[in-house]
Amino acid sequence: MDTVIAYMPNIIDGALTTIAVALGSVALSVVLGLLGAWAKLSKSRVAQGTGEAYTTLIRGVPDLVLMLLLFFGGQTLLNQIGDATGWWDYIEINQYTAGVLTIGFIFGAYMTETFRGAYLAIPRGQVEAAIACGMSPALVFIRVVWPQLVRYALPSFGNNWLVLLKTTALVSVLGLQELVYNSFTAGRSTRQLFTFMFVALIIYLVLTAVSDVGLRWLDRRYNVGVRRS
């Protein structure tokens, strides 16, 4: 127990890094998800094809492969383009940026289907009625579409968030000192790997429980006045 207490500051720092990666990734995934849903619902064949290619790519390539490709291959490609064009100097992608970009890119595809399904669940007559009342497209989205979009998307969004939170453990292979990396390092240094990985397990469960409380609050917030059978 004394050994765990001695390493606890490093474990807490790792947990904070994990939270930072998760929050940055989910913010990016929501933006990409909304854009992807718009593309797949668009009447433009080019937009539809782009959205379909995006989701198909994510379904077919493992998360770890994408992360390694971005961290190593993406950095090399950017610097080759910079050398050839002279537009920028040497660019280095750090572990945090690579992790956020990769996880956000991956879960953006899942969010695409989440938001697309939520939008299709909104009764079309409500949108048409809002337009008939003279609302602008922006006002229709804010007053009619968005509140219901969030309500219908929340169950799937919650699942995506919890999976994303656990997926942040993959960033440890890049050397980012997050929860799994610091726990593994402490366990290997003290030859108490099981103990420190169990501590990491407990912390992940705590983060999941807190997330569940927040998701339940959002569910109540966006279901005010909605009758349940």
3D structure, described in words:
The model has no long low-confidence stretch (mean pLDDT 88). Helix 1 runs antiparallel to helix 7 (179-190) and helix 3 crosses helix 4. This protein has one domain: MetI-like fold. Helix content is 82%, strand content 0%. The chain has 8 helices and no strands. It is flat and about 70 Å long. With 229 residues, it is an all-alpha fold.
CATH top level assignment? Mainly Alpha
Residues in helix, %: over 70%
**Succession of helices and strands:** HHHHHHHH
Give the tally of structural domains: 1
How would you summarize what this structure contains?
This protein has helices at residues 2-41, 45-60, 63-85, 95-121, 124-132, 137-167, 179-190, 193-222.
Write the layout of secondary structure elements.
Elements: H1 2-41, H2 45-60, H3 63-85, H4 95-121, H5 124-132, H6 137-167, H7 179-190, H8 193-222
Helix pairs in contact: 1-2, 1-4, 1-7, 2-4, 3-4, 4-6, 5-6, 6-8, 7-8
Write a concise keyword list for the protein shown above.
8 helices, flat, MetI-like fold, 0% strand, mainly alpha, 229 residues
